[in-house]
Request: fold
Amino acid sequence: MKNLFKFGFLGLALTIAFASCGGAETKTDAATDSLANEIENTTDSIADSLENVADSVKATGDSIADSLKNVQ
Reply:
């Protein structure tokens, strides 16, 4: 019977200790921040690439329009 109380008290103490320390919460927050930063960097890279392609297409279109103006 004494062992039952000892293990019960030990379990309660460990539960309170883990709850008060936060346990894996800081690891989860760090992983979430890291993932958010990676997604933001990837999105920025894709946006820059699309902007470069759009500028290239616009420049080509302007060049074609200028050459057609000179033909007429």
Q: What stands out?
A: The helical segments are 2-21, 25-71.
